[in-house]
Design goal:
Shape: elongated
Largest sheet: 8 strands, mixed
Helix content: 25-40%
Number of helices: 18
Distance between the termini: 84 Å
Strand order of the largest sheet: 3-4-2-1-5-6-7-8
Structural class: alpha/beta
Number of strands: 19
Oligomer: single chain
Length: 520
């Protein structure tokens, strides 16, 4: 006789659905497969003691117990209930067909009661390939922590306090307490930005604030270089505040990535903000392969739909820096190994920050910085030219003494601008280039010998800048829809955001360089 049911074990605060199979035949032996015998002996001791206390006979015969998969499980005491149900079905106490569609969990006491949860239950995240049918019944221990969110989408959730009530339910149809289930997305964590927001509280110049808007509106990678304490990390968090909320599909995908890593992640509409340490490895950044030949997502995938902030970018290893070439160029991450490969889409907004020189005070002049031109050049060479060119926006941060008049753009207005611009880019709304803008672009390309990739980046920045300017102009003048025209001012702004297109940009006088850009 073969009995099959399902149970739930735990690993790293995540639930994993496992299959419990029990085969009974003639003889007097007991075999266990899938879990260590030491753990199985503890489970069977509790179950048999509970049977004797509740009036059921001790099981006799030859049994073979299979629990799978259990390679990741750290806590198996919650498998007491499903294994006890399998024994009751094998003994003929309850119908075997009745528990075939049941997912149960709980630790048995010696008197047959089921130990309740002492605190609110953690989020249950079963592996996708182990998730049974959504029409199955879920049986949980009764207690204050049972009214938790369950990511199984079961037909019904029943609460059981002891073994006797469970047996009567399957024998006679005795009712068990039930809790209502909700659609998982309705239980998501809402995004409520703190007040005052970082975007509104930061003292930024007009061009810096506009750069953050353009980066968020166009999902454009951003490289910030400046002295320590000029707000680079805070500006990255300000960009995060401007991002649109996650939809159900994106949040579910993030939940799946965290599940692969064995990390808890609740469904939420808050975009992720990941800031790995500069000592992280390239595998930790882009992903790796486990021993079981399964792909393990990295920080780049865990930041999907949000921001991947690489603080102190020049301190990362060369492998980490060069691994970003493909994701920033094609928007996909491809990892190939001898036993397989993995290709995933990348939509994370990559923001990197760096000091301009080893001491970090190059922008403050000779009074603070004693680095020679050779040291500055060698320091910046840690970031290869191809990688730097793939960053769409290049921004220099300044000290507070150089800050101009503050902007009065509120966070709600900036987020609305980001949303409208992204919709316009997705729908490919009509915009056109003026003849003056094309001429300005061509002269800038010739003057600085910009590569084809660099020209494409400038065109992208100019387009997004024009959309942002159009949004605020339409809002200020209360006008309806109008044709979007890319002007020379949009191209000049884009040229200012591409400082690495100019060789040895750091060695030029800043005022003379600014004049050249405005005349380009």
């Amino acid at each position: 006789m073969l009995v099959t049911t399902y149970g739930i074990g735990f690993a790293n605060h995540n639930g994993q659905v496992v299959s419990v199979q029990l085969h009974k035949s003639r003889g007097a032996r007991f075999h266990v497969s899938g879990i260590p015998w030491s753990e199985a002996r503890k489970i069977l001791s509790r179950i048999f003691a509970a049977f004797e206390h509740t009036g059921y006979a001790r099981p006799t015969g030859a049994f073979t117990l299979l629990v799978s998969p259990t390679d990741k499980l750290e806590r198996m005491a919650t498998l007491d209930v499903p294994i006890a149900l399998a024994f009751l079905a094998a003994m003929g106490e309850i119908p075997a067909e009745a528990i075939r569609e049941v997912i149960s969990m709980g630790e048995m006491e010696l008197d047959g009661s089921i130990r309740p949860f002492e605190s609110p239950w953690a989020l249950l995240n079963p592996e996708p390939h182990q998730m049974p049918s959504v029409n199955r019944m879920c049986l949980l221990p009764a207690g204050p922590g049972s009214s938790c969110y369950v990511d199984l989408h079961p037909r019904s959730i029943h609460l059981a306090a002891n073994l006797t009530s469970i047996a009567r339910h399957f024998q006679q149809g005795a009712p068990l307490p039930m809790i209502r289930t909700k659609k998982p997305w309705r239980c998501r964590l809402k995004w409520e930005p703190q007040a005052p927001s970082i975007f509104e509280s930061l003292e930024l110049s007009e061009i810096q604030r506009k750069t953050l808007l353009v980066a968020a509106a166009g999902n454009l990678s951003l490289m910030m270089i400046g002295s320590p304490g000029t707000g680079k990390s805070q500006m990255a968090r300000a960009v995060h505040e401007l991002l649109p909320i996650l939809d159900e599909s994106a949040s579910t995908q993030l939940q799946s990535f965290h599940r692969m890593r064995g990390e808890p992640y609740a469904l939420q509409e808050v975009p992720p903000f990941r800031s790995p340490h500069h000592r992280s490895s390239s595998n930790g950044l882009v992903g790796s392969w486990r021993r079981d030949k399964a792909w393990m997502p990295g920080e780049l995938s865990l930041a999907e739909g949000g921001v991947l902030c690489l603080d102190e970018f020049t301190e990362f290893s060369r492998d980490c820096i060069e691994s970003l070439r493909g994701p920033m160029e094609f928007g996909t991450l491809s990892i190939s190994r001898a036993h397989g490969g993995q290709t995933v889409a990348v939509s994370a907004l990559i923001i990197a920050t760096s000091n301009p020189c080893p001491c970090g005070h190059f922008h403050e002049g000779g009074n603070r910085c004693s680095c020679t031109s050779g040291r500055v050049q060698n320091y910046l060479k840690r970031i290869s030219g191809p990688v730097m060119e793939r960053f769409t926006l290049h921004l220099e941060t300044q000290n507070q003494s150089l800050i101009g008049p503050l902007s009065e753009i509120s966070l709600s207005t900036a987020r609305e601008c980001t949303k409208r611009c992204r919709l316009a880019l997705q729908s490919k709304s009509s915009w056109s280039w003026s003849a003056e803008a094309i001429d300005t672009l061509q002269r800038h390309v010739r003057l600085h010998r910009v590569s084809p990739r660099g020209r494409q980046k400038i065109e992208t920045i100019a387009t997004v800048h024009a959309l942002v300017e159009h949004f605020f102009a339409k809002r200020a003048e209360s006008k309806g829809e109008a044709a979007i025209k890319i002007s020379p001012s949009d191209v000049r702004f884009a040229g200012q955001m591409r400082i690495f297109d100019r060789p040895n940009w750091w060695s030029f006088d800043q005022s003379r360089s600014s004049i050249e850009l405005n005349n380009a």
